[in-house]
Amino acid sequence: MKDRYAFHVDSIAYLDESGDALGDLPEWSDDRDTILDAYRHMVLTRTFDNKTIALQRTGQCGTYPSVLGHETIGTAIGQTLAKDDVLVPYYRDHAAQLLRGVTLTEMLLYWGGDERGSAYAHCPEDLPVAVPISTQCCHAVGVGASFRIRDQKRAVLCSLGDGATSKGDFLESVNLAGAWHLPVVFIVTNNQWAISTPRHLQTGAETIAQKAISGGLPGIICDGNDYFAVRHALMHALERARTGKGGSVIEAVTYRLGDHTTADDATRYRPAEELKQAWEREGVKRLQSWLHHQGLWDSDREQALQVSCRNQVDKAVEAYLATGPQPPTAMFDHLFETLPAALAGQYERLQRREVKHG
Amino acid sequence: MADVTLVEAVNMALAHEMAANEDVVVLGEDIATNGGVFRATVGLKDRFGFKRVMDTPLAENLIAGTAVGMATQGLRPVAEFQFMGFIYAGMEQIISHAARMRNRTRGRLSCPVVFRAPFGGGIHAPEHHSESTEALFAHIPGLRVVIPSSPKRAYGLLLASIRNNDPVVFLEPKRLYRAVTQSVEDDGEALPLDTCFTLREGSDVTLISWGASIAETLEAADALAEQGVSAEVIDVATISPLDRETLLCSVAKTGRCVIVHEACRNVGVGAEIAASIAEAAFLDLQAPVVRVTGYDTIMPYARNEMAYLPQVADIVEAVEQVIAL
Ligand SMILES: Cc1ncc(C[n+]2csc(CCOP(=O)(O)OP(=O)(O)O)c2C)c(N)n1
Ligand SMILES: [Mg+2]
C-alpha cells in the first residue's frame, strides 16, 4: 500500500500560561499601542459581561450568554478584520462585534428582547447573530462568493462554536469554500462545551481544525487565550483570503468560564476542578501579565481602566433602560418592505387593541 | 399519586415506558447528563444508562434521521429537539422519511418515532425560542401531531405516542411546563390519540383550542360564565389527524364557535377547523366562526411578545361578537 494522502495540523502559541513569551513574538508585536488597546477592550468586554449578567438576574435583561473566557478571541477578530471585510458572528462574539462598531446599547437591546439591537448603526454589512447554530456558515460562503463574483479583495470571517462544527451547515460551507476557492476564514471557538455536551461527544476527530481538510482547506490550531497566537493566525488567514489564496479554518482553543447562558447551571454537569484549572489559563490576565513584564502596565493604570470601563458600561445601560419598547405595531414594520394590503386589517386591529388593552 | 408539573409528567411517562419496554430509547442534545435544558429527561441516564439515553452531537438533521434508522430496526426512539425553532434542520428526515417509510415500503418498515419539542411563547426567551409552527407538521400526511395542555394529558398522550406504531410530533407548550401542578398517577394508562378532549361542557358557544392557549381559553370561559354565557371548551390535543366528529357535534349543539391559537393566523390549524365546520355544520351555525390568533408577523422578541399572544380579553371579545349575532 502507498500513502495516498497524509495531513497535518499545526498549532501556534506565543505566551505561556503566566504571560511569558515562549520564544520570539511576531514582528507586529512592536506595535504596543494596539496591544494596549486590545487589553483595554478585553477589560471593557468583561465589565459589560458582569453588568449584563447582573441586569438579567434582576429582571432587566433577557437570557444572556456570557462572554467570559472568550474575550481574547473576539478582540483579536475585531482588531484583525479590515473595515470592508465582513464579520459573520455567533452569539458569543461580543468583543469582536463591539470593535466592529456595534454599540453596547445595541447589544443590551438585543439580549433585552428588542429587535433594534440588530439594526447596527455603525456596521452596515456585518451580519446579525444567527441563533440557530451553525446556519451562519452558509451565509458566510454566500458573502465570500459575492466577493469573488465581483472581483473584490475582501475577506469574510465566519465565527462559530465547537458544537456548531457538528452540523452539516459548517461542513457543507467548508466544502464549498474549498471547491469554489472562497475568501472565507472560519474561526471555531472551541470552549470545550456545547451547553452540557463535552467536546469529545461532538466528534471522534482528534482536532476540530482537521475538519478543514475534508473540504480542501488548511486547518490550524491556536491557543485561544493567547492574544498573540489568535491574532497572528487570523492575520495570516485573512491575508491569504484577501489575496486570492482561499479560505481556512482556525480552531481557537479556550474554555467557557461561565454558564452556557444565564438560563444554565453548569455545576450540574461540569467538574469544579476543570473550571478551576481553566482559570489558570485565561487570556485577559495573561495579556495583563505580559504587559506588566514589559513595563507597559501597572496597578494605577489598571485602576483607571476599571473606572473608565465601568463608566462606559453604566452609560450604555442607562441609555438601554431609557429606551422604551417599540410599539406593538412595530412587529409589522419590517415584515416586508411595505405592508401588503392583506395585512392592513391586522395592523389596524393591533393598533385598536393597544388602545383598548393597554 | 404525585402532584406534578407538565414537564415532570413528560419525564414520568418517559421513565415509565423505558422501564416497561427496552426498545424505548431517548436521544437529543443535552438530555443525558444535564437531563435536558427543561429537565424533561432528568434522571433517565442514571436509571437506564448512556446506551439508551443518548447525548447527540449538535445536529438536528442527524437526530431526526438517526431516530428514523433506529425505528426501522424496531426501536422506539423518542427524539428531543431542544426548541421547536431548531427542528427545521430535521424537517427533511421527518417529512421525507419518517412520515413516508410505512407507505413507501407497503408496510414492511414503519417509523414509531416520537419527535418531542417544546414550543410557544411567553417565557421571554431569545429569537427562535417562542414560535408556534405546529401547522407545518399538521400539513404533512403520515404524521401525527399531538399537543398536551395539562400534566395528565402530557403523561397519557406521551405514553400513547410512544406506543403508537407511527411517527408522532409531540409538541410541548413550554409556557405550561411549570405553570400548574396536577396529581397524576404513574399507572401506565395512556390516553387516546386522534381524539379531542371536552374540558368543559356548555351550550352557548364552542371554544376550540390546544396547547398553551387552553389556559387563556378556560379563563375566558370563566369570565363568560359570570356574564351568563355558557361556553364549551374543547382541547383538540391531536391536531392531525383531526377529530372532526367531536368538534362538529359541539357546534351542532351551541351554534357558535371561536377558535383560539397562539400560532399566526394564515393557513393555521384554525383555518382547517373553520373550513371543516363550514363544510359540515354550516346550517348549525348562528354566527360566523371567529378565530383569535397570533398575528401574521414574525413573533416579536421578548419585550413585545405579550402583545402577540392572544389574551383572555381577546377571546371574551370574540365570543361577545358571535353571541351578538
Ligand atoms: C440548531 C440549533 N440547535 C440547538 C440550539 C440550542 N443551543 C444554543 S447554544 C447551543 C450549544 C452551542 O455550542 P457551541 O457551538 O460549542 O457554542 P458555545 O455556546 O459553546 O459558545 C445549543 C445546543 C440552537 N440554538 N440551534
Ligand atoms: Mg462550545
TrEMBL record, chain A:
Keyword Zinc: no
Domain of life per record: Bacteria
Keywords associated with the record: Oxidoreductase, Thiamine pyrophosphate
Catalytic activity: N(6)-[(R)-lipoyl]-L-lysyl-[protein] + 3-methyl-2-oxobutanoate + H(+) = N(6)-[(R)-S(8)-2-methylpropanoyldihydrolipoyl]-L-lysyl-[protein] + CO2
The keyword Oxidoreductase is assigned to this record: yes
Pfam family, one: E1_dh
Function text: The branched-chain alpha-keto dehydrogenase complex catalyzes the overall conversion of alpha-keto acids to acyl-CoA and CO(2). It contains multiple copies of three enzymatic components: branched-chain alpha-keto acid decarboxylase (E1), lipoamide acyltransferase (E2) and lipoamide dehydrogenase (E3).
PANTHER family, per the entry: 2-OXOISOVALERATE DEHYDROGENASE SUBUNIT ALPHA, MITOCHONDRIAL
Protein name in the entry: 2-oxoisovalerate dehydrogenase subunit alpha
Source organism (scientific name): Marinobacter halodurans
Record lineage: Bacteria, Pseudomonadati, Pseudomonadota, Gammaproteobacteria, Pseudomonadales
TrEMBL record, chain B:
Stored InterPro entries: THDP-binding, Transketo_C/PFOR_II, Transketolase-like_Pyr-bd, Transketolase_C
Xref: SUPFAM superfamilies: Thiamin diphosphate-binding fold (THDP-binding) (SSF52518), TK C-terminal domain-like (SSF52922)
One Pfam family from the record: Transket_pyr
Cofactor: thiamine diphosphate
Keywords: Oxidoreductase, Thiamine pyrophosphate
Keyword Secreted applies: no
Signal peptide location: none
Domain Transketolase-like pyrimidine-binding: from-to ranges: 4-179
Cross-referenced PANTHER family: PYRUVATE DEHYDROGENASE E1 COMPONENT BETA SUBUNIT, PYRUVATE DEHYDROGENASE E1 COMPONENT SUBUNIT BETA
UniProt-recorded name of the protein: Alpha-ketoacid dehydrogenase subunit beta
Organism: Marinobacter halodurans
Organism placement in taxonomy: Bacteria, Pseudomonadati, Pseudomonadota, Gammaproteobacteria, Pseudomonadales
